[in-house]
Amino acid sequence: MNNVEILIVDDEVQIRKMLTITLQSNDYKVSEASNAKEAIIRAANHPPELILLDLGLPDENGHIVLQKLREWYTKPIIILSAHSSEEDIVKALDNGANDYLVKPFRTGELLARIRSVLRSSTQEDENPILNFGDLSIDLATRIVRKTEEIVKLTTTEYTLFCLLCKNEGKVLTHHYLLKQIWGPSYINESQYLRVFIAQLRKKLEDDPNHPTHIITESGVGYRFI
Amino acid sequence: MNNVEILIVDDEVQIRKMLTITLQSNDYKVSEASNAKEAIIRAANHPPELILLDLGLPDENGHIVLQKLREWYTKPIIILSAHSSEEDIVKALDNGANDYLVKPFRTGELLARIRSVLRSSTQEDENPILNFGDLSIDLATRIVRKTEEIVKLTTTEYTLFCLLCKNEGKVLTHHYLLKQIWGPSYINESQYLRVFIAQLRKKLEDDPNHPTHIITESGVGYRFI
DNA sequence: AAGTTTCTTTACAAAATCTTTATACAAGCC
DNA sequence: GGCTTGTATAAAGATTTTGTAAAGAAACTT
After folding, report:
1. Chain A residue closest to B97 (CA)?
2. Domain boundary residue, one of B88, B121, B154
């Protein structure tokens, strides 16, 4: 089982059945909705990885449903529709649909298009290596490199460095960093921070006395570039 | 001009012409390639934001071209092809194409699909940057620039500058500024203000003696333009 | 249990920032 | 002009914030 959940929204029970069987036999988890109201409730309660949306629903215009979903739902939506007019297609795509298939569609093509949109929506966490000049951090393996050399960081050092990397360019306040790393009751222990910032600089900066990556913003916090 | 560059890969000159005109009139920047070799070279030398790829190229099978591109090119690729067989479509999508349009296609639909794939590939997190001529202030990252150069401001300087920027054009009284920055009990310490205004001018004005941004309204306060 | 690593705490040095003082300039007014 | 009022700037303290080393405590390893 893939554990990728797809929500099928269609009023015709035969089509839902067909899609369910097709998708399940391709290792997708399936949930169903037969009208607009149900679709929105289901999507909100248990957001799927992808929505297959029929535009011809009984209780509401499909374009409206799409708009409502897109107010908050950011994952892929593929439209399945009997209408093949350019107007409908353009409108749906501009309302945030990721693809538009005209019924009757070919099963293999649908599956390929599902794979395609899922691929592009999940490719971000596929390669979680952040690069900053001569420094790089691999979020998955927790490996930090400086000019290809692996740098060994302790847990606390790594957590701190991670925070800085993930917020490149932004100033992170002492307050925020202390809260994130040591917990809310440590927000006044700025000394901890100083010690670990010094440690990181010693390990990561070319010249710890003139840091180019870990910049201190006096009176505010630190910034990573 | 959008400044979004699209590479058109097609061997038929009429189609390239037509696409070029269509895309350019929709504010895209266009480059062209008429065969596989040229396409790969162009894409490598000057990577576009999107590639429109015809599968029927004279010098190489389109699927192979797609595979070669996908070895390193991560931005969207839309296939334009005369072949409408499911086999071709599935193969292309599984090789990393983001969409597949069968020729002849409808122009409006192509543009909508281009918008769609570009939308999902460029999920920008726009942060509010205020611009004032050669000066800019990024409230999120707390970065102030003067003609692209980062200017380092201390906490007090930054707070003061922020206040001025947020009230561009308005006169802020000494009273008000002192109260906002130092607190209600400092409303008579106008000297503080003068010192910090001078500091800001020294850092931000081209000629601190003849300020063009931070204007003094004698007897009242200061105004930022 | 000894040794190693990592974290916490202390102490002091260094740097940055803020406050205060001193002085100069400009404009308006008698 | 001489006086007052409001403003500008430099520079000397004063204060706050930050950096660094190093010792002791705690947590892990073997």
Report:
1. A116
2. B121
